[in-house]
Amino acid sequence: MPSVSDPGYRLVAAAVERGVKVTAVPGPSAVLTALAVSGLPVDRFCFEGFLPRKGGERRSRLREVADERRTLVYFEAPHRLDDTLAAMTEVFGADRRAAVCRELTKTYEEVRRGPLEELAAWAADGVRGEITIVVEGAPETGPQDLGPEELVRRVHVREEAGERRKEAIAAVAAETGLPKREVFDAVVAAKNAARTGPVEGK
């Protein structure tokens, strides 16, 4: 599969930008076929299978890979597609690029590409068929790009996934290259601000 073993995704992306329809011959796996036609980087990817059916568990699973830089691949049932894309929009961000691949190599094959927010709106009308979702990995961000609000958000994401605050702070510090004290101070400041609330002007 050239798009997986070679940088063929650049050719696919260029074809999509020019309005050229891209399809694939039947292969051994819907994962590889979806990756090949997605137009997203596929030199490194993770297969995540089906997400949990319950909304809370689904969001928790997505939070576990919110900062994963490799392309993500999911299978999903058509009647849950709109809820899944909405959850991805919430956790990954509205602008994260993705491709929804439907009925690959079959008569009614369709590949929808775009930001997660747009794909969620499209799926709200109902979709049929076998579904494979390909989502681009998280963008690389350096420590200098992360403000206190983002540090607090990352800690909260890990806490909601079941980590203790101390562990979450240590993990965020490790992944950002920042001192643990800086992450801790951001969390404490946010907690204090939430307690006191906004100060009214005179």
Automatic annotation (TrEMBL):
Q: Which residues form a coiled coil?
A: none
What does the record give under GO molecular function? methyltransferase activity
Name the UniProt key words of this record, in alphabetical order.
Cytoplasm, Methyltransferase, rRNA processing, S-adenosyl-L-methionine, Transferase
| Cited SUPFAM superfamilies | Tetrapyrrole methylase
Any Pfam family: TP_methylase
Q: Where are the transmembrane segments?
A: none
One GO term under biological process is: rRNA processing
Superkingdom assignment: Bacteria
Q: Which residues form the Tetrapyrrole methylase domain?
A: 1-120
Q: Which InterPro entries match?
A: 4pyrrol_Mease (IPR000878), 4pyrrol_Methylase_sf (IPR035996), 4pyrrole_Mease_sub1 (IPR014777), 4pyrrole_Mease_sub2 (IPR014776), rRNA_ssu_MeTfrase_I (IPR008189)
PANTHER family noted in UniProt? RIBOSOMAL RNA SMALL SUBUNIT METHYLTRANSFERASE I
What is the name listed in the Swiss-Prot or TrEMBL entry for this protein? Ribosomal RNA small subunit methyltransferase I
* Chain's gene name: rsmI
